[in-house]
């Protein structure tokens, strides 16, 4: 049980504590799909 709660807290902390990483992953995927020229004006 304790391990489950710990995993949950870690996941939550990771999601709300490191939004930049998520954004970076999203941008990476977007950049891979479309050219950077279209990604720059988006942000």
Automatic annotation (TrEMBL):
Residues 1-43 are annotated as: Disordered. Residues 29-43 have a biased composition (Polar residues). This is Uncharacterized protein. It comes from gut metagenome. The lineage of its organism: unclassified sequences, metagenomes, organismal metagenomes.
């Amino acid at each position: 049980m304790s391990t489950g709660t710990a995993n949950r807290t870690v996941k939550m902390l990771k999601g709300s504590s490191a939004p930049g990483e998520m954004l970076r992953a999203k941008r990476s995927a977007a950049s891979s799909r479309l050219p950077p020229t279209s990604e720059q004006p988006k942000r």
